[in-house]
Design goal:
CATH class of the largest domain: Alpha Beta
CATH superfamily of the largest domain: P-loop containing nucleotide triphosphate hydrolases
Number of strands: 15
Shape: elongated
Oligomer: single chain
Strand content: 15-25%
CATH architecture of the largest domain: 3-Layer(aba) Sandwich
């Protein structure tokens, strides 16, 4: 329910705060005092588009904030899905800056307007006399029947069957398209696969081949240079290793003379060992290197083939070519088993479709069982609301499976005796629509967790007796749900648990809309004014007290 509402810098509202009670709240005031402006601000909380023209002070931003207790609404999944902090007391805020930028927040976390709209549907239901178009929508009517019939289990089973079939159908259709492409490319893919397979590529071989080619191309010069180096290192008389060995002996002698020189001897010995290792390594390399023109040509040819395939497929490594080879092999394998897999998926899809039909029939039957009770209860309520000859008929048309079932539900209505019920949009006036949807919400109040209900002058154009019946029904709804009613009828306004008065303050240079909760005495005066005008008589005051049961 709505615990508090604050509006700042919106239209004629400079600053406004209200804390409605948990049951039935009444809002009254003269025409143009700002009741509709309040609803416009509430609409911002529900995700409606903003307009900078609505700013009271064009130099400041507009802020509308509502605090809601959402403990019983079961909205944890929404908050988890949107990665929002869940709190039983949820705060929604909307800000409109002078430059037209709009920002929305849920529990101080910035959100997209779509998130705000989705959450707003679960928090507030604003209904006015001219806002009944949704009742004529087939999807809305279907949701009403589901709520009335209690089809949660059947609908969940149908949804699961429908989802499974859709997944299987998409898998089959996807493979069918892939099969067409595979068959078109089959010969070309096979040629590419054979070309890659015949080469017998191995990971890392390109670097090895390039290194081997480099050595083979320079084998004679490399051997010559190694021989020269080894001679300089290993010559018996003038070789570097022999000379350095003599120096090492001298350092050993030096270390025996003074311990300080041991570190030099150790470092020199390490360097000499490393130099001998280098010489041994070069000797080993010298023995391995051969001048082999045939091997060089073979290496060049293989590298050339690798380079050609890399250029052909726009790839830069042997590993990438091997990955392509695997992909082509997988396609070839898939093509070999394509018909078998297609048949399996087609059979699975067909079986799941039968499950959808079966679940759809169960759901349709459950919905059908609620038609007569719903129509009877709704007709009875409409008669209590002054539509003595109202009749309701629900028709059901079977359709192909959709996410919501296999039914098209149409609520047919007639307000006059002897007139065949027809589609709502063809026969219902604004006042009839208004009472019809009010009666529906009265029925639904016991069937589902409705959000805060706001009725904007829903009693317009009805008689006093009908208005009394309407407000009695509101009182019943308000026992389980928070109701806020904007009314111009004294007999309706008098039945609220809490009464707010909207008025214009002209005490400053600019008119400001304000709202205040009425005390018991102020409420008597307001109801009396609604009965008799600005200067109510004693009889009007007594009538007000009678309506208020004072």
């Amino acid at each position: 329910m709505l615990k508090s509402l604050s509006i700042n810098n919106y239209a004629l509202i400079q600053s406004l705060e209200m804390k409605p009670c948990a049951s039935l709240n009444m809002i009254t005031g003269e025409t143009g005092a700002g009741k509709s402006i309040m609803l416009g601000a509430v609409g911002l909380l529900l995700g409606n588009r903003a307009d900078t023209k609505a700013l009271f002070d064009e130099e400041k931003k507009c802020i509308v904030e509502g605090e809601f207790n959402i403990k019983s609404y079961g909205l944890q999944q929404f908050f988890e899905a949107e990665d929002l902090d869940y709190e039983e007391n949820c705060i929604i805020r909307r800000e409109i800056s002078p430059n037209g930028k709009s920002r929305a927040f849920i529990n101080d976390t910035p959100v997209r307007l779509e998130n705000l709209k989705e959450l707003g549907k679960a928090l507030m239901d604003v209904h006015s006399q001219h806002d009944s178009l949704q009742l004529g929508d087939g999807g809305y009517q279907l949701n009403l029947i589901d709520a009335y019939a209690g089809t949660q289990v059947e609908l969940a089973q149908y949804h699961q069957a429908f989802k499974s079939h859709q997944q299987a159908k998409k898998a089959y259709e996807k493979l069918l398209l892939e099969a067409q492409d595979l068959k078109k490319e089959a010969d070309f893919n096979q040629f590419q696969l054979e070309e890659l397979s015949n080469l017998g590529l191995q990971a890392g071989e390109q670097a090895d081949l390039e290194s081997e080619q480099e050595i083979l191309e320079n084998a004679e010069e490399i051997k010559s240079k190694i021989h020269e180096i080894l001679h300089q290192l290993q010559d018996d008389q003038f070789g570097g290793i022999n000379i350095l060995s003599q120096a090492n002996s001298a350092l050993q002698q030096l270390g025996r003379l003074a311990q300080k020189f041991d570190t030099y001897r150790e470092r020199f010995q390490t360097a000499l060992i490393e130099l001998k290792d280098i010489a041994d390594g070069l000797e080993d390399e010298y023995s391995k290197i051969e001048v082999d023109f045939e091997k060089l040509e073979t290496t060049r040819e293989r590298l050339s083939k690798i380079y050609q395939l890399q250029q052909k497929h726009a790839l830069d490594s042997v590993e990438a070519l091997m990955k392509l080879e695997k992909t082509l092999a997988d396609k070839a394998f898939q093509l070999d088993h394509l018909d078998e897999e297609l048949e399996r998926l087609r059979t699975t899809s067909a079986q799941l479709y039968q499950e959808v039909l079966a679940a759809g029939k169960v759901l349709s039957a459950k919905r059908q069982s609620a038609f007569d009770p719903f129509a009877k209860e709704l007709s009875g309520l409409l008669q209590q609301l002054g539509m003595e000859n109202a009749s309701i008929v629900l028709s059901q048309l079977s359709s192909t499976p959709t996410p919501s079932g296999m039914d098209q539900v149409d609520l047919l209505f007639s307000a006059n005796k002897g007139v065949k019920p027809q589609a709502l949009k063809q026969v219902a006036s604004g006042g009839e629509f208004s009472r019809l949807i009010f009666a529906i919400k009265y029925i639904m109040a016991d069937k589902m967790a409705l959000p805060t209900l706001i009725f904007d002058e829903i009693d317009t154009g009805v008689s006093g007796e009908v208005a009394l019946q309407m407000v009695r029904m509101m009182q019943e709804i308000s026992q389980k749900h928070q109701v806020i009613c904007i009314s111009h009828l004294p007999q309706v306004a008098a039945k609220g648990e809490q009464h707010y008065f909207v008025y214009k303050d002209n005490s400053t240079a600019r008119t400001i809309s304000k709202v205040k909760p009425l005390t018991a005495e102020e409420r008597i005066q307001e109801i009396a004014k609604m009965i008799a005008g600005a200067n109510p008589s004693n009889s009007a005051i007594e009538s007000a007290k009678d309506l208020l049961k004072i």
